[in-house]
Amino acid sequence: MKRISYILAGVCAAFAAAAQAQPYQPGMANLDIPDAVSGRDLSGFVWYPTDATAPLSYDFESEVWVGTQVVMEAEPASGQFPLVVLSHGMFGNSYNQAWFASALAERGYVVAAINHPGTSTWSRDPDLTRQLWERPKDVSRVIDHATTSPDLARLVDSDRVFMAGHSLGGFAAIALAGARYDAASLQRFCDETPGELACGILAGWQIAQTPEDRAQMEADLSDPRIKAFAVFDLGGTQSFSDTSLRQIDRPMLVFGAPIMSSGLTLDIESRALVAALPAGVARYIEPETLSHFDFLGLCKPGGFEILAKEEPGDEIICADGGAPRAAKHEMIIEVVAEFFSQQ
Fold it and tell me: Is 79 buried (19+), middle (13-18) or exposed (0-12) by CB count in 10 A?
C-alpha cells in the first residue's frame, strides 16, 4: 500500500510539473574540463534552454539507441537557470541519460553530464577505476566550471544546484550529500554476505586496499553547494557508515527498481538507504515494473538483437526498452522536475 501511495503521489506531482513547464527547446554543446595538474580531463555535454527551434539534429547516432532532437550550439535563452549535474552508472557514459537531460532543458534547467575516467564506457584503466574517490570530485569540478566559466556562469543560478546519479552515480550522490565510506564496516558486511554484487565489484577494483587509498575513500567528499539529489537505483549503500547516513540533511528523491535486472538487492540498497536517512529527508518511489536499465535511453526496434549478437549478455539493457520504457521516462522526468522545483 505504501508503494502504491508513493507512485500515485508521483503521478499527481508529474501533472502539476508538466503544467508549469517552460516551452524551451533543448540546446546542446560539448563540455570539456581540462586538468593540467593531475591530467584527469573531463569531457561530456551540456544541455540548456534555448528559444531557437532550428536546425534540429539528433544528439547522437546509434543502431541501438534512440536519439533526442536538440539544437546544437544554439544561443541560450536569456536568464539564469538551475543546474543539474548527472553522474552515469558503472562503465556508462554521458549519453546514458541524454533523454533526461534534454527534457529538463525544455523545462528550464542547465544539465551537465561527463564521462568519469576509469568507470566509463571509454575509460576502464584499472588504476583510474581504483581511484573511486575521484567520482564525487568530478561532480564538484563540473559545478566549479559551470559556476565560474564565462560561457556557462551567465546561465547558471549558483544558488540552485542539483545532482542526479544512476547506479554508481547514485553512490557518488550519497558521498556528495555527506555519507562517508567505511572500509571496515563494508568488510564485515561482505564477510557476512558473500557473493553480494557490490562486494565483488569493489573488491575486484581494489577499492581502499592500501592505507593511502583508504584515507582518500573515507575522506569527506561532500559538496554543500548541491541543494538536493535524485538517486536512481544506486549500488554500494552498505559501504557508507550508518552514522554519516543519519547526518544527511539535504532532500533526496530515491528511486528503487524492483525488477531484478542488474543484480542489486533493494533491501540492502535503495530501501536500506531510505531507512538509514533521517525522517523527512528522503522521498522514496518504487514503481512495480521499473528496472535498473530503465534509466538508460530508449532502444530502437532490433536493438536487443544487435546487442545479443555483438555483445552477448548486454542485450538485457534493452529488455522492454521501447514503448514501456518511454512511459517510465515520462514519469521519471516529471517527478524529478517537480521535486527539484520545490527546493
Answer: exposed
Q: What CA–CA distance (Å, rounded) separates 55 from 154?
A: 24
Of 163, 139, 132, the residue nearest 236 (C-alpha): 132
Write out the three cell numbers for 52.
531557437
Determine contact, residues 179/169, Cβ cutoff 8 Å: no
Residues of the chain with pLDDT under 50: 1-21
**In whole angstroms, what is the distance from residue 78 CA to residue 197 CA?**
46
Summarize pLDDT for 26-81 with one digit per residue, the tens. Answer: 999 999 999 989 999 999 999 999 999 999 999 999 999 999 999 999 999 999 99
Report, in angstroms and rounded to the nearest whole number, the Rg of the chain calculated over CA atoms.
19
pLDDT given for residue 22 in this prediction:
57
Q: How many CA atoms lie within 13 A of 193 on its CB side?
A: 16
Nearest to 332 by CA among 100, 101, 169: 100
Write the CB contacts of 86 (distance below 8 Å, at least 6 apart in sequence).
94, 97, 100, 101, 111, 112, 113, 163, 164, 165, 166, 169
Residue pair 295/309 in contact (Cβ under 8 Å)? The answer is no
